[in-house]
Write a structure and sequence with these properties.
Length: about 350
């Protein structure tokens, strides 16, 4: 069994309820007031952590509006927009990080972030973040992985698009650079993702392959895929979060609203509770329900010495008489005492 991992004051691992991360991303729409409201709403919905992204447009790409620097996916949310423009709209101002992390502390949830370059790691270290997240698009950026691992803090890494060989290289780099507590997240890097492309059966396979906990970074609509992943052992669920999709924003279209985030928290915890252990037979309050099984009862009064037949013994509810499997054994036998209708048949009633 894999060892549990401590993420700040929360424990991740077998026997612990799923750890729910609300991903703010660019859903603050460049309003600190809205960003703080997102923290409040995530905490009220029961999320355990709120994640920021730490970058600027200039640390992500160059300001170019031609060729491959423009999104050309005809079905994508961001078609026709330059990468620099998108990152300029979505980035979280670095001066907001401290007040947002402070609001997280006030609301009893964990604030942390995804760094996208070494300068972001250095900045987040000054803010004493308790652990880090590596985004799918950075999971092959070995220099960044080594920089984050050198902090010695736990790392959560999304695995979107990565082949097994790429993950082997990245996981090895993280561990060799000092990461001792690693959680991978199965991820499909489309926005939104279709449930049929999520392939969450990969979760237990990845867990066995890399000998670490494996959760889910989920870009599908709703909570069904996330709940199903818990049944496969996912201890961490990350979902994008907004106050209202109708408010717009670069990530709003595939983000949960507060009631949906609350549903995610509740339903993943129920799924976790339902896992239990391998168990057969009656358990807990189920024991008393055995009385409502069928059993053998006297259906018509019989006198001592009379034989039992289909006319005077039946298989009915409740279950206080002999088990139905004994019907053929008792038919034709004589009773030793008078038995009224409604008597639960017992062996001592027979000669």
């Amino acid at each position: 069994m894999l060892q549990s991992i401590a993420l700040a004051d929360k424990t991740i691992g077998t026997g612990h309820k799923p750890f729910i991360i609300a991903e703010m991303s660019g859903n603050h729409n460049q309003s600190l007031e809205r960003a703080l409201a997102l923290v409040d709403a995530a905490a009220a919905a029961g999320a355990h952590a709120l994640k920021l992204q730490t970058y600027t447009a200039d640390t992500m790409t160059i300001d170019c509006s031609a060729g491959e620097f423009v999104v050309d996916d005809p079905a994508g949310l961001w078609r026709g927009r330059s990468l620099h423009e998108l990152y300029r709209e979505a980035y979280t101002p670095w001066e907001w990080h401290a007040p947002l992390f402070e609001r997280c502390r006030q609301r009893g949830i964990i604030g942390f972030s995804t760094p996208f370059d070494a300068s972001a790691v250095e900045f987040l270290e000054r803010l004493e973040v308790p652990f880090y997240k590596i985004a799918s698009f950075e999971n092959t950026d070995i220099p960044l992985l080594k920089c984050v691992a050198a902090t010695g803090k736990p790392i959560i890494m999304s695995t979107g698009m990565a082949s097994v060989a790429e993950l082997e290289t990245s996981v090895t780099a993280l561990r060799e650079a000092g990461c001792e507590q690693l959680i991978l997240l199965k991820c499909t890097s489309t926005y939104p993702a279709a449930p049929g492309t999520t392939n969450i059966l990969t979760i237990p396979h990845m867990r066995a392959l890399f000998q670490c906990h494996v959760g889910l970074s989920d870009h599908t609509m709703g909570v069904g895929v996330a709940v199903a992943s818990v049944a496969l052992g996912a201890p961490v669920i990350e979902k994008h979060f907004t106050l209202r999709r109708a408010d717009g924003g670069v990530d709003a279209g595939f983000s949960l609203e507060p009631p949906e985030l609350r549903q995610l928290v509740v339903e993943t915890e129920r799924a976790h509770q339902a896992l239990g252990q391998v168990s057969y037979g009656a358990a807990g309050d189920e024991v008393k329900m055995r009385n409502y099984r069928r059993s053998l009862y006297i259906a018509a009064a019989v006198r001592a010495g009379e034989r039992l037949s289909h006319a005077n013994v039946r298989v009915i509810r409740p279950g206080l008489g002999l088990a139905p499997k004994h019907l053929d054994e008792v038919l034709g036998q004589r009773v030793r005492v008078d038995l009224d209708a409604g008597t639960a048949l017992q062996w001592q009633h027979l000669e």
